[in-house]
Design goal:
single chain, 383 residues, alpha/beta, Rossmann fold, 2 domains, seven-stranded mixed β-sheet, 14% strand
């Protein structure tokens, strides 16, 4: 007798994007009453590693980017697959996770981070777990660590990622170009007029949304001051992120004549994006995907070397974003040019809608459980 369906959505809390993609998929499973749960890889690590790994990642991407770039490129070698379950050290690190999976007996496991995907395929090969395994790539590039045979299916953001996987020897596994899964709020965003009313924005004024959670205080203030110094009559919405200390410091130190709302973490980012004409942000895979899902143009700056550079270039290549160089006053100049050219701004909005995949989470669940989906013309399946 077949086991009843039981789904696990596993991620790693290095940044928030992997978690948000997993939660977007869980929303669909909940809508369909399919038993599912999410799990973070990090709490399964041995004691000191639970804090050491996230801390080390944070240091690399924020304080030693040259080190992160070296590590990213060093590990991106296609000749050798990423096999964390093969070494004694990593078997010790991930033993708790394996025991958890063996106890819970999941039938389908979706991984939005490359490490669980690699672990799962090795464990299944050794008959240590028995479940269908799916990788959901959450950036607009596929690092070598994503490239594994033995998975049941890959779900990727675009054709370029599909080609990267095929070129590295993944064609034995099916690949679907689904887009990156985004939350239900981005599938049916609040109408622009209603969103502007909610956030006290006039219909006629240009609204700029600045998402600053990925920047430290100094960078956040620098970005906001550069926006303010344009002299444009902008309505500015600012999310400083989940750190309340940073939020208070920004409120105290950012002095401007612009009509401005500053807040910390908000679960209403989809509303904010609907209200905005333009977004200024780091190019995380989920942020870029959420913005294009609602047709919001982006000015992208300070990308993490590697995956975020690829995200920014993808959006810019398709006309939905502009990558802002690190030059002094570059952000202010580009912001001014875009807002003073309605045709340019509209072109970017149209481009964003064209590459947006708001139904990605639905498409992924449909593909796995063979539910007919609404044709969109954007999704391609490779078997």
């Amino acid at each position: 007798m077949a086991k009843p369906t039981k789904v696990l959505l596993i991620y790693a809390s290095f940044g928030s994007g992997h978690k948000r993609a997993a939660e977007a998929l869980q929303e669909v499973f909940q809508e369909r009453s399919i038993p599912s749960e999410t799990a973070d890889l990090v709490p399964f690590l041995p004691g000191p590693l639970k804090s050491l790994y996230p801390w080390g990642y944070d240091v690399l991407i924020n304080q030693w980017r040259s080190g992160w770039k070296f590590l990213y490129n060093r590990l991106d070698r296609p000749s050798k697959p990423y096999m964390p379950a093969k070494s004694r050290l990593q078997r010790w690190q991930f033993g708790r996770l394996k025991r958890y999976l063996q106890e819970q007996q999941f039938t389908h496991i979706f991984s939005t981070h490359f490490t669980p995907s690699a672990l799962l395929t090795d464990w299944r090969e050794n008959n240590e777990i028995d479940a269908k395994i799916y990788s959901v790539v959450t950036d607009h590039t596929a690092h070598r660590c994503w490239k594994r045979t033995g998975l049941d299916h890959y779900f990727v953001s675009n054709e370029e990622v599909l080609q990267q996987l095929e070129n590295s020897g993944v064609p034995n596994t099916g690949i679907t170009v689904s887009g990156i899964p985004v939350a239900k709020a981005f599938r049916k965003p609040l109408p622009r007029e209603d969103a502007r009313t909610e956030w006290d924005c006039e219909d006629h004024e240009p609204v700029v949304l600045a998402l600053c959670s990925g920047w430290n205080l100094a960078k956040t203030l620098s970005v906001l001051n550069e926006i303010s110094n344009t002299g444009l009559p902008i309505r500015l919405l600012v999310s400083t992120g989940p750190d309340p200390v940073k939020e208070e410091k920004v409120k105290k130190r950012f002095v401007t004549r612009l009509k401005t709302t500053i807040f910390g973490f908000s679960p209403r980012i989809a509303e904010l994006m609907s209200a905005a004409d333009l977004m200024v942000s780091k190019p995380g895979g989920l942020i870029v995907s959420e913005a294009v899902a609602v047709g919001l143009p982006q000015l992208l700056l300070s990308p993490i070397p590697g995956q975020e550079e690829a995200n920014a270039k993808f959006a810019e290549r398709h006309g939905a974003a502009i990558c802002v160089p690190n030059d002094k006053d570059a952000l202010g100049k580009i912001l001014t040019d875009v807002l003073r050219e309605p045709e340019k701004l509209q072109s970017m909005k149209d481009a964003a809608r064209k590459i947006g995949t708001p139904l990605a989470a639905i498409e992924i669940v449909n593909r796995v459980f063979e539910t007919p989906s609404t044709p969109t013309g954007k999704f391609k399946i490779r078997r």
